[in-house]
């Protein structure tokens, strides 16, 4: 009997695309937590000036007489985060085509819950901030941070059924779609129509690539860069280019699974026939057959699935951590922290992300199930939905992103918003985890 190290067992196991997705989100959540703590430490240490100066350093991109100049903070939020939004676009597309959102009977519960989880926090925030300068921040408590929320569920292991995890994933993805629409429609101050038209033309080029069956990544990447630039110049937030580009990436394989199976079996038989018996070196015929098999693997896969899987790790290890490091660092004056928490902006976000999310997600889910519009996820309980509703109150990444857009001209309001987001996300995460860990599991 062969003995394997733990990591060898992991490599021998075949993971599904959904499991890769969960793993990537869990990795993101853990790193995100570490980078948030690091940002807070740096912002409240003797290095605070160096920390702020670094992210406000200008970086210029120059080609001849043309120049694009932005701070590092701006490049992260408008540049690197476009890749994050590209991943969101791919996830939304996958869920609609083949995931939980492809079956209306299954999708209706997370869709309704997500809508409730966006609507109620926004209304609560507006009720508290109506008539104040902070009223424009109503979109901040609408968002759910999919990485943190899923990380909390995955840490619970077998205490939560798999169907509850897929419910949260579907809910968070609908939530992301809502956040993207809110950013595009309500947080665009001025639109320049010529660059916007050029962005539209770039998108049409991407769609034409798709329709002509082009599966190579490079053409999409090149035109996608132009799309991002034109969107940046148009006044619509540049990160929306990521979502739009994702919609044009092919999600249909060139070859069917049956074709792949029959052709690959034939090639493997041929591979065995041309074998020389040398276990250390492949001959030229074997190498040619393996290249042929690799081409068929690429043909049965899709650019969308390859990109989603290939980009998850760079986004988890680079993009999101840099965003957290650049945006989560707030200098906290603990003597006045109590006053900040009761400012309308902070209070609206805290009550919106905690109370509004629970009321919207759990309340709408309970009503939909009682009215027989939807069904509970398999092997789950309403008590577990209640715990998941708290996890939906972890706003973080998208909430901070919206806060920077909503209060672009007010450092004070951004500070109040970030304090509210961090505290609400912390409370929502702990309450949701402990509810599912110690209460809901026993009630099941």
The low-confidence runs, each spanning 5 or more residues with pLDDT under 50, are: 1-14
Described by the principal axes of the CA atoms, the overall outline is: globular
User: Tell me, what is the CATH class of the largest domain?
Assistant: Mainly Alpha
Stated plainly, the CATH topology of the largest domain is called Na+/H+ antiporter like fold
Helical residues, percent: over 70%
CATH superfamily of the largest domain: Na+/H+ antiporter like domain
Number of H- or I-type helical stretches: 18
CATH architecture of the largest domain: Up-down Bundle
Q: Mind describing the biggest β-sheet?
A: 2 strands, antiparallel
Order of helices and strands: HHHEEHHHHHHHHHHHHHHH
Span from first to last CA? 40 Å
Biggest sheet: strand arrangement: 1-2
User: What's the number of structural domains?
Assistant: 2
The helix/strand class is mainly alpha
Question: Helices and strands in order, then pairings?
Answer:
Blueprint: H1 6-12, H2 17-43, H3 48-55, E1 58-63, E2 66-71, H4 72-97, H5 104-129, H6 146-155, H7 162-186, H8 193-211, H9 217-234, H10 240-248, H11 257-273, H12 284-300, H13 303-327, H14 337-341, H15 344-370, H16 382-391, H17 396-406, H18 411-443
Helix pairs in contact: 2-6, 2-13, 4-7, 4-10, 4-13, 5-7, 5-15, 6-7, 6-18, 8-9, 8-10, 9-10, 11-12, 15-16, 15-18, 16-18, 17-18
